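Help wanted!
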Amino acid sequence: MPDQTEFMMSLGKVIPADRLLTKPAQLAPYESDALTAYRVRPLAVVIAESQQDVIETVRLCDRYKIPFVARGSGTSLSGGSLPVESGIVIALNRLNRVVSIDAQQRIAVVETGIINMDISKAVSPYGLYFAPDPASNAICTIGGNLAYNSGGAHCLKYGMTSNHILAIKAVLPDGEVVNIGNESIEGVGPDVVGLFVGSEGLFGVALEITVRLLPKPESFRTLLAAYSSLEAAGDAVSLVVASGLLPGALEIMDYLIIQATEAAVHPNYPPDATSLVIVEMDGERTQVDAEFERAVEVIKESAPDVIRIAQNDADRMRIWKGRKSAFSAVGRLSPDYLVQDGVVPRSRLGEALKEIDRLSAKYNLRVANVFHAGDGNLHPLILYDGREKGAYDRGEELNGEILQMCIQFGGSITGEHGIGVEKRAYLPKMFSEQDIATMRRIRLAIDPHELSNPGKMFLPAETAIM
Amino acid sequence: MRPSTIQEIQELIREAPRVLPQGGLTKPGLSSPPEGFTSLDLSGLVGMKEYEPNEYTFTALAGTRILDLLPLLEEYNQYLPFDPLLVEEGATLGGTVASGLNGPGRYRYGGVRDFLMGVRFVDSSGEAVQSGGKVVKNSAGFDLPKFMVGSLGRFGVLAELSFKVFPKPEKFATLKLDFENIDLAMQALYKATASQLDLYSLELESTPAGYTFWVRLGGLTEAISKRVERVRGLFSDGELISDEAEEKIWRDWRELTWVPKGWWLVKIPITPAYIPQFERELAGQPILRRYSYGGQAAWLAMEAHPDHLQTLLDRHQLAGLVVWGDVSQPWIGARPKDTFLKRVKSALDPIGRFPEV
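Answered by r_m:
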């Protein structure tokens, strides 16, 4: 049993009292993240203000074998920053400096706690932006994006976080500080940065991150199409994908989501629409105009009830307003919800949505769908009332069946939220014992005592070996 | 050793003490086994296993020659946008991943790392391990597919690879811009990388007369001529090359025909800022020089051993990869002391079945 008292005393020498939280009322906000069904009270929270704070904290954790969880804004939907009992949380929000911007080389170096959108704001005067845009980009941090390889509406064309990270300065779980990657988009060895991104905090804590910037798209063209069934919307998306067009974003919203967002932010979607498809083309104006014309033709072939074409920026923002606020708007429909982000092959979207509908009826729970359809990344929101006995368990079971379906269809149990604590029981359904053993070996080579974000991705060791 | 199934690879691995996988032998600097290691020839492990044109994905065995895959993709107007190198010479899919090398198309849509979705590899103990998946978006588990890009057979034997592909642009056009000196060439390069125009490839070449900057565009037929005019406007110049002549320029690039046979070829990841320094320091030396993907990599070709590059690389703290040439290990220059990499090596290959990293 590690000596917590001695550890806390040593920690107190490194971190001033006003940034070392230990009182229950102070710890409460850190007990869970966006996966609210799980709560764990940590031993303490360190509010880091400098990279040195993080390094020294991690070194003490290593010396006393105290587990730690690094946390940004706590927006993980898979419980990625859920604390561990008798462990500490290292809060990184104040580590949010822009270290440098080199507009000509299209590179920025930022600290791990910077908010995703603030990177784009900082480089905007140079006509550049940071492409990955998770729906939570106004609050989520780049460190969290990196740990969970976050996606977003535009990763169909621009790729996930991983496609935009060039180099990482990180503290490994034993306190060693490493620099991996370089400023170029090219490398000469194994793609170590690629492995670090999406490792769910199991390899230590990223401190400083070099990101790749892109010139802002010159032009956007956006359309909204309404369908009388969700399956028809799914089929429309399959048509767009098969047409060979490469939209910047390709999204679906279903009836429940339309109702919820209409009530919450009044995006003025077509009345009576059962489901909506958003198609957006972005890039060079001349090319986008030509692509958009073709996209309209393809959408017409899919026989929607209504097509609305954004005529100006205000129209476009209105279309996106509903989509971006979907998760928060769902609070109007139900006191609690579970959200999934399984992936199915894009050619089987209609089929998958029909199956979700069937499961929803079977479990007598409403399921709202809003998702990145272009890459087959579902986001069924399972609505339940936590006060109703057995409702959560039913929701979890329904959840499991959807994930099972994704695997059966040849897809994945997660497209962008990661495994976290939420889906770790399903990892063995997607990968063999041998596959998981390999990943665990890598984890143990980097973190032999499993101090960094334990309990994420893998089931606890004793259950996993069974 | 020339296995033709994954099972045969597993059996061979369990029997052979130390091996280095080898594909089409198009990049011999990267696949020559160091002393004490035997080549594991994967040219018999061939075939497309699954191809879903509507899904824009395929899975094929690692020894498959890209030349044999492309016609299947072309039937549906699909392709690998990162422009794999040395296709006509017989480059394999596995060798392309293990070398981590990209062609000029990398600028627009990303490199092999951005298109590889899943791998099945045989580890040092002979177990077949799957990582990643077969769908275009997936973040379940560690991203070993990305890690295998550039891994040079040092962490396992790549056996089966899943890729996403893209629709092939309907029409291409190229502008050729000549410059007297590097400063003018760099101005053009920066203009291009900062521009909102959708540029497909940006390659800079040092020539006896100065510099040539190649700007490629790709996209829909109806938009291409207007777009060419916009690019011309950006540089207020440019000789337009189209159709077969255009295609040949890029085919030659992919096949590395600019490098004389028997010469050494080194790739060095850089940022554009290094280019003028390289040009100053290498001026007058018998080294052919190209800078790829908007100035993100230098390609240096020379007749003699690239030993003399060591000083240059050390001074700039850069590392290079010897793609062609007779070397015992393919890295030159200042490789960072990478304990992270060493730890992953100890997890995947604790017994040293594959060469050191």
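OP: Thanks! One thing I noticed: The two ends of chain B are 23 Å apart (CA to CA).
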